[in-house]
Amino acid sequence: MPAGVHDPATPSGGNAYDRRVCADLPRIGWQVDEQTVPGDWPRPDAAARTALARILRESPDGSLVLLDGLVACAAPDVVVPEAVRLRLAVLVHLPLADETGLDPAEAAALDTAERRTLRAVPAVVATSDWAAARLVHHHGLDRRRVHVAAPGADPAPLAPAPGTAGDGSDASPRLLCVASVTPRKGQYELVEALSAVAELPWSCVCVGGLGQDPEYVSRLRALIAERGLGDRVRLAGPQAPGPELDAYYDNADLLVLASHAETYGMVVTEALARGVPVLATAVGGLPEAVGLAPDGSVPGALVPPADRPALTAALRHWIGDPGERRRSRAAAHGRRTALTGWDSTARGVAAALDRLREDSREAA
C-alpha cells in the first residue's frame, strides 16, 4: 500500500500523524510502502507533479493508495485519472483553502482543486468529526465515503506541578504555544492579549517553525519588542518530537493555542497527556481535542477565535486566579485518563481502507 506523504522531516502535526500511521499499520497486519513526494506542496512545480505521477503510475492496478491531502488535493490533474485504476483514499489534515493569509483567488483555486480530488476518490479520511462534517457539507461528499481517524496521544509522565522545582512558577505561570509561526496559528493575537495582562506575572515560549511565513515572523518579533515583552516571550523555533519537545511540555503550566482554523489540534492532547491544561480557541476540531474530564469539567478554557478581548479575559482569569489554575490542572489530570492512543488511530485508518477494499470487490 503506497502512501504518498509530504516531507516527513518537517515538524508538523500532519507529518507526525502520517509517520505514526505508516509505522503503526504494519503492527495490525498491513504492509506499507511509504513514498515521500518532494516539492513545495500545495504549490507543486512541474518536477513535483512528475514525481507524484511516477509514484502513482508505478503502483500496480488495484493498489490501495493513501495520499496526504496536501499532495492529493493540490494536483487533481494527476490524481483524478488514477482513481479509475487504483483504490485511492485521501487523508485530509486541513482543507487547503482554510490556511489564513491566502490571496482570495489562490484560496478559491485551491478549494476547487480539492473538491475535484475529493469527489473523484472513493474514500476520504478526516481527523475529527468536525472536519468530516465540514468536508461533506462544503464539497458535497457522500457521508458514507468520509471516515474519521482522530490523532492519538502517547502516554506521558505527568508534568511537574507548578513550583515543585523551586523556580517560583506557581507565582509566575509558564505558558507554552506549540505551533508553526503563521497567521493561522494566531501568535500575533496571543502576544497582543499577553501585553494586555503584562502587569501579571507570566512567561511564554512559542515553539514552532519560523520559515513558513518570514514576514509574519518579522511582524511578530516587532510586536514583542514594541510591547516590551522581549524578556517574557521567546520564539524557540521548531523542535522535532522527542526529548527536546517533551522538555517544553514538562516545563509548561498552560498550553495556549489561539488558532483561527484547526481540524483537530494534536498539541492539545500532547499537553493533556502530561496533565497540562489548555487555553484554546473554540474553532474547528479543537473543542473535540480539549474534551471533558470524566466529571464533565473542561481541562482549561475555550474562547471564540479572533476575539482578543475574550482571550485577554481568559488569560487574566487563569493567570490571576490560583484557584482556577488548580481547578484546570485537576481537570487536565482527569482528561488525561480518557485519551486514546495511536493504535486507535491506525485502526480507524485501517477500517477506512478495509471498507474501500470491500467496496471495490463488490463493484467488481
Please provide a brief summary of the model:
This protein is α/β, with parallel strands linked by helices and 364 residues long. It has 14 helices and twelve strands.
CATH superfamily of the largest domain: Glycogen Phosphorylase B
The arrangement of helices and strands along the chain is EHEHEHHEHEHEEHEHEHEHEHEHHH
What form results from the Cα inertia axes? globular
Count the DSSP helices: 14
What percent strand? 5-15%
Got a strand count? Answer: 12
CATH domain topology of the largest domain: Rossmann fold
Overall mean pLDDT: 92
Main sheet attributes: strand count, strand direction, barrel closure: 6 strands, parallel
Describe what this molecule looks like in 3D.
Helix content is 43%, strand content 15%. The chain has 364 residues and is an alpha/beta fold. It folds into 2 domains: 2-152 and 341-363, 3-Layer(aba) Sandwich (Rossmann fold); 174-336, Glycogen Phosphorylase B (Rossmann fold, 3-Layer(aba) Sandwich), CATH 3.40.50. The strands form 2 sheets. Strands 2-1-3-4-5-6 form a 6-stranded parallel β-sheet, sandwiched between helices. The longest helix has 22 residues, at 342-363. It starts with a strand and ends with a helix. Residues 1-9 and 164-169 have low confidence and may be disordered.
